[in-house]
Design a protein that fits this description.
With about 280 residues, the protein is α/β, with parallel strands linked by helices. The protein has one domain: Rossmann fold. About 35% of the residues lie in helices and about 20% in strands. The protein is built from eleven helices and nine strands. The strands form two sheets. It has a seven-stranded mixed β-sheet, sandwiched between helices. A two-stranded antiparallel sheet has the order 7-8. Strand 4, helix 6 and strand 5 form a beta-alpha-beta unit. Helix 6 crosses helix 8, helix 7 packs antiparallel against helix 11 and helix 9 packs across helix 11. The longest helix has 12 residues. It is globular and about 50 Å long. GO terms for molecular function: methyltransferase activity.
Length: about 280
């Protein structure tokens, strides 16, 4: 099959959700994407990303992780074939001379797959990232190994490849919320929810022909100004699209609001502690 990017894996196969993709993309960029910034920063710090780094971001979405790397001096390329709306936002953020954006150095955003980068000029990439977490939905990593394998020829030998997974349910409050609402999709038998497994990321790396070379855990609490923002942010992940398709958005909003109630603070904010795991693998 044709490799697809990480974000598309999370939107597992099934009926098309009745959602406004432009609204979801904007909510992702303005509310949800920043929740994983501690993870991006921890990975970049560990791998000493900076001037001279050539980074390829798979499933780059609206480009915040690329922007962070570019601010450290890295030359960044992002590819994503799952959301034209998010790719457009990434271009607004990163491409010099377009949309009035400031220059971010040697940045490139491609609405496509790693195969669309074949034959591109320039040195090989020394870092490949797949920052969209896997390991919460059955089948959410389907195709990821193939995507990583297709990106490997673009990277230098021994280049770092970073994969990310959800932590154990007892340390990820958000996965419990998503699981409870995602049950609305069960009549479609689509996207069953399961706990993250300890060796999920290692198995993906092995299938992609990569060699594991270290791992880490990062706390990434999800905090929102209010319940409405939390609902919008979580819907923007795409992880509940199957539930929207099985029921309707009004019902999903109601169920999600109820599931968030235990995480609401007295001041109306919503706070959910989470831990994510990352694996560093190497190309051979």
């Amino acid at each position: 099959m044709t490799p697809t990017l990480v974000r598309q894996h999370l939107r597992h196969a099934g009926p098309r959700s009745r959602v406004d993709r432009r609204v979801r993309a904007r909510d992702w960029a303005e509310i949800q994407e920043r929740m994983l910034v501690p993870l991006h920063e921890a990975v970049y710090e560990r791998l000493e990303v900076g001037g001279g780094t050539r980074l390829l971001g798979l499933g780059c979405g609206s480009g915040l992780a690329l922007l962070t790397a570019a601010s450290r001096g890295a030359a960044v390329t992002g590819v994503d074939d799952s959301s034209p709306e998010r790719v457009r936002l990434a271009r607004e953020r990163l491409l010099p001379g377009e949309h009035g954006a400031p220059s971010r150095g040697d940045a490139r955003i491609v609405g496509g797959t790693p195969a669309d980068l074949a034959g591109a000029e320039g040195p090989a990439y020394d870092l490949v990232t797949a920052f969209e977490p896997v390991g919460a939905v059955a089948g959410d990593s389907e195709g990821l190994a193939e995507t990583l394998a297709s990106a490997a020829p673009l990277a230098a030998r021994g280049a770092a490849v970073v994969l990310v997974g959800w932590g154990p349910p007892e340390r990820c409050a958000t996965s419990g919320v998503l699981r409870s609402v995602g049950g609305l999709a069960e009549p479609l038998r689509d996207g069953g929810w399961r706990p993250a497994r300890r060796d999920d990321l290692e198995e993906i790396a092995q299938r992609a022909g990569l060699g594991p070379d270290g791992s880490g855990r990062v706390a990434c609490p999800f905090g929102y100004a209010d319940v409405e923002s939390a609902v919008r942010g979580l819907l923007s992940t795409g992880l509940l699209d199957a539930a929207v398709a099985a029921a309707d958005e009004v019902q999903v909003d109601k169920e999600l609001t109820e599931a968030l109630h235990p995480h609401r603070r007295r001041d109306g904010t919503v706070w959910m502690p989470n831990v994510f795991r990352y694996l560093i693998a190497r190309t051979r």
